Each structure stands twice: as structure tokens, then as C-alpha cells.
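Review form for a predicted model. The reviewer records the input and the model, then writes brief findings.
Reviewer: anonymous (R2)
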Amino acid sequence: MTPAQRKAAVAAYKERKTPAGIFAVTCAATGERWIGCAPDLDKIQNRLWFTLRQGGHRRGGLQAAWTTHGPDVFSLEIIETFDQEALAYLRDRAFAERQAHWCAVHRAEAI
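Model under review:
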């Protein structure tokens, strides 16, 4: 890869649109759900699974379920996505409101 190609690839990566939104983590063994929000839904599962494998997730209930049942019974589902342009200046408030809504709907704990 030439320096110009590398520079173009980096610029394209920075300009890509990343889906932001609300997701749910479900433990099939217990039926428990945890609801979270992320500015980049494409990468959230990798980040969560890494933290859980390391044993350092900040939500004790989620970490305990992961440790007890293992990774094979967990799944991640995207519940809602947001428009990036509309979300830019309202992101934190929109995340908090929608996360609270989905926690109530699913009777789930927030991540």
C-alpha cells in the first residue's frame, strides 16, 4: 500500500457513518436481559465480550451470569438505531431516554 493509498483509506475510515443506538444483551440460560446504548453499534459486541472475558465488566449481574453460564448462551441484539445527523447534538439525552424506555419495556437492567 502506497502512502497515498494509506492516507485515503484512513480518511475514508474517519468519514464512515457509524450506527448509534440501543442494544440488548440476553442470557438464554436465565432469560435475563441488559440494555445498553452505544455511539458505534458495529463495535459494541466485541468490546462487551472482551470486557466480560477479562472478568472486569462494571455490571456485576451481567458479569456473574457470563462467568456462570459462559459466552455461548449470550447474544446481542440491536433494538433501535439513531440518525447520526439528528443525534449529534442530543446524543447523551437521547441515549438516556431511549435506554430507560427499553429497560422498562423489557424489564431489564441498564448496562
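Findings: The mean pLDDT is 87.
Further findings: Strands lie at 20-27, 33-38, 74-82, 109-110.
Recommendation: see findings above.
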